Amino acid sequence: MSQKISLKGAERKVFSTAINDGLWDILLGCFFLIFALAPFLSTRLGDFWSSVVFLPFWLLVFLIVQWLRKHMVTPRVGVVKFGQARRTKLRKFAVVMLAVNVIVFIFGLVAAMSFGRVTGQIYTITLGLIFLIGFSVAAYFLDFNRLYFYGLLVGLSFLGGEWLWARGYASHHGFPITFGTTAGIMILVGLAVFVRLLRDNPAPIEEIPSEEA
Amino acid sequence: MVSPQADPQLHPLADIDQVIHAPARLMVLTYLYVVESADYVFLIRLTGLTWGNLATHLAKLEEAGYIAINKEFKGKKPHTTISLTKQGRSAFREYKKSLQQVLDDLPD
Questions:
Q1: Do B31 and A10 touch (CB under 8 A)?
Q2: Domain B18-97 class in CATH
C-alpha cells in the first residue's frame, strides 16, 4: 500500500459523501434557468412581475429537493455532524459569500444610479466576473470542484450572451441561449449524480434493532 | 503476532494499540476522528463494511471505551449515532504517534 492516510483527505471524503447527491446541482440549475426565461417574461409582465412569478417556481423546486433529500438521499447516505474544522470552514464561507453578495448589491446600486455612464457590456462583464469569483470561493471552501466549472459556465454565460446579442445572433442579451445551456448542463449533471447515487445504493439501508445487530 | 523477546528492535510494535490496529477499526476511527458524530448508514457507506461487520467492530471499540453509541428512535425506526469519546480521541492520536515512531525507527 503506497497511498498515504490523510486526515484532511478523510474529512474531505466525509463532506463530499454528505453533499454530493446531485440535488444541489439541480437546485442551482433551476436558479439559472430563471436567468434564461426571465427576459421573455419581462417583455410581457415587466421586470417586477417577471421576477415575482419565479418565486413560487423556485420554492416548488426547493421543496421537491428537500423532499427527495429527506426520503431518498438520507436513508441511503446517512447522517453526519461535521467536525469543528469543517464548521469553522463553513462559517468562513458564509462570511465570504455575504461579502460577495454585498459587493454585488453595491455594484448593482452604483450601476443603477449611474445608468447611461456604465454601459450594458461593462455591467454584464463585471457581473460575470463576480459570479466566477463567487463560485470559485464556494468551490474552495466547500471542496466541491464542480463549482469551479459552474462558475466558469455562469461567467461565460454573461460574456457569451452579450457577445451573441451585440452581433445580432440572439435576443434578450443572449441570456436565453447561454443561461439555458448553463442551467441545462447543471441540471443534467445533477440528475446523473442523483441517479448514480440511487443506482449504487438501490435499497435504503434499514437499521437493524440493536438486539439483532 | 510480534514476539518482543525474539527481537528487541521490534519491542515498540507490541505497544501498538491492537484495538485500533485492525484495518476496519482504524478506518472507522479515522472517519469518526474528523466528525462530531455519524450514523450507522453513513459509516457503512464510507467504509464499505457490511452491517454485521461494522456492528462487530463498533462493539469492540465501545468495549474499549473509544466510542459512544447513542441509540434513539426516529418515529418507529431505530437510529444509531456513533461518536468518538475523549479517550478514543486521545487513543487515536497516541496510536498515530506511536505507529509513526515505530516505522521511523525501523532500519531500512
A1: yes
A2: mainly alpha
